[in-house]
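Extended Data, panel c. Modelled sequence:
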Amino acid sequence: MQGLSEIESTAAPAGRSGAGASPEHPAHGGPAGRLIGRRDELGRITDHIDRVAAGAGGIVLVEGEPGIGKTAVLSAAARLAAARGLRALRSAAKELEQHVPFAAMGPLRAAVEPAPLQGQASRGASTNTMAIGPAPTIIETLLSATEDYCATEPFVLILDDAHWADPSSLRTLQRLGEFIHKLPLLIVLAVGPPPRARGLSSLLAEFEAAGAELVRLGPMSPSEVAVLVDLSLGSSAGPLLSAAVSSAGGNPLYVTELVAGMLQAGMLESGDISSDASSFAENGSADIRLPESLTEVILRRMDQLPARSRQILSMAAALGQGVEAIELSEVLEAPLIDVWSVISVAIASGILVRSGAELTFRHDLIRQVLADQLPPASRVTLQLRAARVLMSMAAPVERVAMYLLTGAGPLDLAGLEWLTNVVEPLTVRAPELAAGVLARALETRRLDPERFDELRLWQVRALLWSGNPTEAEAVARHAMSQGANVTGRQEVGTMLRWLLAHACFAQGNLSDAVEVAESALGRPGVSAVQQGQFHGFRAVSHTLLERFDLAEEASAQAISTGIAHADPVARGLSSLALGLVRFHQGFLDEARQLGDQLMRDFESNGRRRLSNIEPYSLSGRCLTELDQHAAAEKTLTLAVRYSEHNAGVYLGSNRLELARLHFLRGRWDETLIELRACRDAPDVFGGAAAADCLTALVAVHRGTFAGTPESLPTPDARWDGLGYRHLRPWVQSLIYETQGDSSRAMSLCEEFANGPVSATVYQMYPDLIRLALAAGRAELAGKVASAAEALAARHSTHSRRATAALCRGLAEGESALVAQAVESFRQAGRPWYQAQASEILAALLAADGHAEQARPALDNAIDLYAGFGAEWDITRAEARLREYGIRRGRRGRRNRPKTGWQALTPTERKVAALVAEGLSNPDIATRMFLSPRTVQSHLSNILTKLRLRSRIQVAVALAQQGAR
């Protein structure tokens, strides 16, 4: 392994500050990119690089004043990562790109995304229908893609000048930080000192709370400054020069700029300040007047350049970090040969450096000093001029919009015309940027009403697509309250209400969304197709509010319109709503047909996102209830991926459904992984509360729950639980049961004994009927059994038949029915319920005096419980049978150990075997029908339990295990 000294002497990689600088004008860390000093600071970063190489993620924050050497430290860190076989993705935020979405995440997106999101977004955008467009959740997509990328190899993400990062990039970093301990990813940020913008301050506070390493760069020591000066000169510094640079306060940029300025001015001779350096002396060489600040040093260096060069460089600096000769020539209306001449001088002087195919200012502080030489008004005028030039050159719309945003007040006519022509691609590709430019456009006086209405619609879209539904709602309601322009064009008013309804929906305000949709239906001039779409939207909203009668009525109106006019939006919304209604009612045949039709329509539509249609989750839920678990997992995983790549409204609920599937299959570790991901998703429909309750359910059964019944989160009062209303009282009742209070436990769940509130409530029936009998409520037990039988009659599946047989057998004391339930649950692939049924069977057989038959049933139950780590259930089952003098017939390991191969779950063993075969995490995910995130979580658990650090060590350990 290479040591620090070997790495530090390596030249900086191309594309970064300092690369390409001449020996006469080196990167401020040292000549040819060599880092002077900083061994302690770099050593701390190296520790994190070694950890990420072993699979452990982390965050490092490099803080220091301008010019102190942050970029040089980042360059050294990148070289150290490369020397250890890690890929380092480097980026630098830029001042002028603070409003360009994801500008600072460019290298990460280029590395991890399988295809440009812009192309995907463009395919989904449509203004021919009232579809709200693609609204891709780029952050979630980028998070998912990064997880997939991490599954193949660890890597380091380095961001310089994070204080200039745009809000979208900061949010992306924040989301990545939430998973940093689950991914082999190291995030390294360089930031300036306080004060900082609120978004950056919040991010850094979160990172530090999560254990980020803070590396503060202080001044260089006098000996390090002496080395830097000697290397810059190529010879030892004389006493006058050494005394002069001591005033630089140990700032390496200050030192190198001071020395370079003296060289450029011809003030140095034989490594020291010459005797005739009168421009720097007042009373001879013993009293040398030096610049008081780094800014003054840079300005004095610029004084050595011709006036025309200084002027052009100042204007170039005002346009950003990069310099493009042809564009600069057009913007300044200067001959290209003159511009190239200035650029050549700037390169020779070390002001500009080559960064790959691009020319950039060597340090952003140099650019800022130069840009500040222009008055603010002149700077804005220049940037607006650049926008017009870029318009004529058909430059990317984001670059034009970036310059337009620097101005204040309304757009000029040229800008307005350009925006009108490109508003759709700009909104699709950079909605945050579009929202800002559109706000300026709408300030234009005497804007004709038709254009005003159209641009305001795009403003609402931009706000909605950029993840600001609250502001989108405010703008839409303000527009409707004005009424002047909107009422003049009925089509605009209709579309405005469509977007407003979606803004309310995206905030989880479903009743408000329904109210807006119904108000639109009462307006004149709404076409038949639009009516069908509004009815479909109403149907989905009513379904999620569990207003099933209203949902069916709205679905019927939408489906007839959708079929009559071949409209995929109305047809899709109505199919989704009606399918969910049928699912909750327990009619799986019809629900499955509607779900499959949704998927077919989505595929035939070229996978375009239309309105709030989610094409996969309905089929996934049906497959779960049909006991087709492998197909259900595959389909629900598709639903999660779809939500990650789109608006994300259903992301939390889809992850919750996937977690429920894992729970039913007895894969509780995967359940907990998916529940953590659910809590990380946007919580539009209250999924976080349900996730916490399901997490608590696992903890209760494992005997690890430390809270109280009242500590469980209460579902949002705006809706009745979306199919999970029974979850909180179910878990609370079990907590009371663990405390020996069966009566209170029963009272919490009594309302669910009177028939199926939803298709999934039957999953609590085995516990419910046990509690009813324990509380002496035989009549209530009978009601539960009847409800289970009624649900099985609607659509018979192994799991529903098993539940009905179990409940009836327990209610009437019929062990034969319970024995049937044990076998049916086994066929259904629900081992958790098989264990419960075996426990009940053992108790019934024991009560009938069949001790020899009861013991194997008890053994079966406890063996299954042990596989889940269900300590409380094991204790309860043993105590229950002990009353009849029955103990376990065979004694095995009751608890899975915490470490070693025996600690691995069956799923973890499969993952370990596939890792040993050399499969990547995405390959394992495909083989096992898991998400890459789940595979990564399993791998982290494997490494922890086996006390290993890498995949290679897993393979070696598995081979050694097999040889024993």
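The two ends are 33 Å apart (CA to CA). This feature is highlighted in the accompanying rendering.
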